[in-house]
Specification:
It is a single chain. The protein has 216 residues and is of the alpha/beta class. It is 38% helix and 19% strand. An eight-stranded mixed β-sheet has the order 3-4-2-5-1-6-7-8, with helices on both faces.
């Protein structure tokens, strides 16, 4: 596993910030169910996949049963982050059905559903009905299903995911993500009636490696 600060330096400010994010998500569950969560970004300036992997690690370490789904069928990264094979994954499962090809990781309680071979037409695979069924099946096997997806403003994939999950966490890259892009991403998510449970600022200055804030 590469670049996972929650493993290489679990006492760092960044790792502690991921712990705080996990706690905030736990509190969000008190108001409404929050079993399936999409973690995405406004644009391509944010390392969303690495951030999601770190969140999955701290959740699993806390005792939650976590399934991390690489729903970025265009530029998948989770198999590289966790050092897993990617010959089968979400793309093949959506076509073939059967049991999801989950893979165990070196972290107890954490399984990964890689993206699988890059699909020629990802949107065709992510039909609303099939995606809903897939998330329901995965939810029956875990406390949390954490989903990766392309940036909101890049393609329509993230909007499809957002319409089917219980909540969305929007990642913003400090000093790189333009404010208007963040606001546009928020508007896209609201248009599909996504429940935005929070926005997270990455790469903040000084000791605050990650800081949640509300989009205006």
């Amino acid at each position: 596993m590469t670049n996972l600060i929650t493993i290489t330096d679990p006492r760092s400010a960044a790792a502690e910030a991921y712990q705080s994010l996990r706690t905030n998500l736990e509190f969000s569950r008190l108001e409404q169910p929050l079993h399936t969560v999409l973690v995405t970004s406004a644009d391509g300036t944010t390392d969303k996949s690495n951030a999601l992997a770190n969140l999955a690690v701290v959740m699993a370490q806390a005792g939650d049963r976590v399934i991390l789904v690489d729903g970025d069928l265009r530029r998948p990264q989770q198999h590289e982050i966790f050092g897993l094979a990617n010959t089968k994954g979400l793309a093949t499962w959506l076509v073939e059905n059967g049991a999801p090809p989950l893979q165990k990781t070196s972290i107890d309680n954490l399984q990964v559903l890689t993206a699988g071979p890059v699909a020629a037409n990802p949107i065709a695979l992510l039909s609303a009905k099939r995606l809903g069924e897939a998330l329901a099946e995965l939810s029956s096997q875990a406390d949390y299903v954490l989903c990766d997806a392309p940036p909101v403003l890049a393609v329509t994939d993230a909007a499809l995911w957002a319409s089917k999950v219980d909540g969305v966490v929007l990642l913003i890259n400090a000093g790189a993500t333009k404010r208007e892009h963040a606001q546009r991403a928020k508007a896209v998510l609201e248009k599909v009636r996504a429940r935005i449970v929070g926005a997270v600022l990455l790469n903040a200055e000084k000791d605050a490696a990650m800081l949640g804030y509300q989009l205006g």
